[in-house]
Design brief:
427 residues, alpha+beta, Uridine Diphospho-n-acetylenolpyruvylglucosamine Reductase, domain 3, 6-stranded mixed β-sheet, disordered C terminus
């Protein structure tokens, strides 16, 4: 019934076990497989959102089911962040918990099935989603350091129900599933029964359409990869470790290909904006040459500086602290929220401290005399968003080095900086 061969080499298997019909069938199938064939160790994970009173009894039910199957159960309590969609915020909390749990190479199995594919397609069509939003849920995708796998996508809800009855399985019914105030419940309880009266194979046909859309998206992704090849190269200051694109290369494309290329590039870094928020791209692209526009997205920000688009997330979006005295110039020094620094080219002397730009700084440049730091950073094409957190090394009242710009300052006191990594929670 399940093809699990691609994931047999994983170090561990987990199953997202809500206690409902879908995950109960999946747990039973995985436990049966593990009993009869060599398989990675299997554990069940129940995420308790605490959103309704009835859910308080579900962990105990899940434990009873798991004990009967000889499967270990982990219960994780999460709190859904406030948001416009309770369904979405609860899902985000759940998947964040899964992501934290997975070690490198581990697999999290979930119970989505063919009917879920159909409901997702119709739901997103009604929201006006683009092609990327309309494509089928993949059987497998990356999740944190591991993988999320949906092995039931070819099976209908009715097939799962028949299996559960024939094997005497017991599951919980979520009372909120009957609340048609939730969009998906309305589709499942009101819309699809009407569709069935005229088109009995509606779910299967819609799921197949989602697969066709996925093939079309694959072709557009290939086009996007080709379009981005020129835009990704020749980035200045490689020590920044930041992803960036050449704006001029993108601007040569048609508007539709610009959006396609950016959607492909951003989809690997952030949840994509809907069509209403793509005005942020136009503002970024069309701003004056000396402007510093920012497009704020769900999981980071896209900045424009010196003709390039730069992706920032994680620590790069945090506040840079005040300057600090350097306790031991002979050792690398971690900067709170801003990577680490170290010295080469000599002892550097005593009375050293690290600060960040406030404006008006000048530095003695070998062979050029005293120069304004702002102009020097312009010459070096240091992006505007980097300058507030670029470490400056002082000896007393004299600026003696600028991080990673070794042509500035004293030759015997070179300051090296490892910037913070650009890490985010979802990709």
């Amino acid at each position: 019934m399940l093809n699990l061969t691609p994931w047999l080499s994983a170090p561990a298997w987990y199953i997202a076990f809500s206690g409902g019909l879908d995950s109960t069938v999946l747990l039973h199938l995985l436990a049966d497989y593990a009993r009869n064939y060599p398989a990675p160790p299997l554990r069940a994970v129940h995420v308790h959102h605490g959103l309704q009173v009835a859910a308080d009894a579900w962990p105990a039910h899940c434990k009873t089911v798991c004990d009967a199957l000889g499967i270990e159960l982990d219960v994780i309590h999460v709190q859904a962040a406030p948001g416009a969609s309770l369904e979405q915020t609860a899902r985000n909390a759940r998947y964040t918990a899964f992501e934290k749990l997975l070690a490198p190479g581990a697999v999290m199995f979930t119970g989505q099935h063919r009917d879920d594919q159909a409901e997702t397609l119709l739901f997103r069509l009604l929201r006006g989603a683009g092609l990327r939003g309309l494509t089928a849920m993949p059987v497998a995708r990356a999740l944190g350091q591991g993988s999320l796998v949906r092995p039931l996508l070819k099976l209908s809800r009715q097939q799962l129900h028949t299996y559960a009855i024939s094997h005497g399985l017991v599951w919980v019914e979520d009372p909120s599933n009957a609340d048609t105030a939730f969009a998906r419940n309305f589709l499942r309880g009101k819309v699809f029964p009407l569709l069935h009266e005229r088109w009995p194979q509606a779910e299967g046909n819609l799921a197949r359409s989602a697969e066709h859309l996925g093939e079309a998206l694959g072709l557009l992704d290939e086009l996007a990869a080709d379009d981005l090849e020129a835009a990704c190269g020749n980035a200045p200051l490689p020590w920044l470790g930041l992803d960036s694109l050449d704006l001029a290369a993108l601007a040569m494309l048609s508007p539709a290909r610009q959006r396609n290329a950016l959607q492909y590039w951003l989809s690997q870094r952030s949840r994509l904006p809907d069509s209403r928020h793509w005005a942020g791209w136009h503002d970024l692209r069309d701003a004056a040459p000396d402007a510093c526009p920012v497009w704020r997205l769900t999981d980071g920000e896209l900045h424009r500086s010196h003709g390039r688009l730069w992706w920032l997330s994680g620590a790069w979006l945090g506040k840079v602290p005040a300057g600090l005295a350097w306790p031991d110039p002979g050792q690398a020094f971690s900067l709170p929220g801003n990577g680490r620094v170290w010295l080469t080219g000599g002892q550097g002397g005593a009375d050293l401290r690290i600060t960040y730009r406030r404006g008006g700084e000048v530095i003695q440049v070998p062979g050029r005399g005293r120069r304004d730091l702002k102009r020097l950073l312009n010459e070096a094409q240091v992006p505007h968003f980097v300058r507030p957190r670029l470490p400056l090394l002082w000896r007393g009242d004299q600026l003696v080095a600028v991080a990673n710009l070794h042509g500035l300052g004293q030759a015997d006191c070179q300051l090296h900086w490892q910037p913070p990594t650009c890490v985010q929670g979802l990709s």
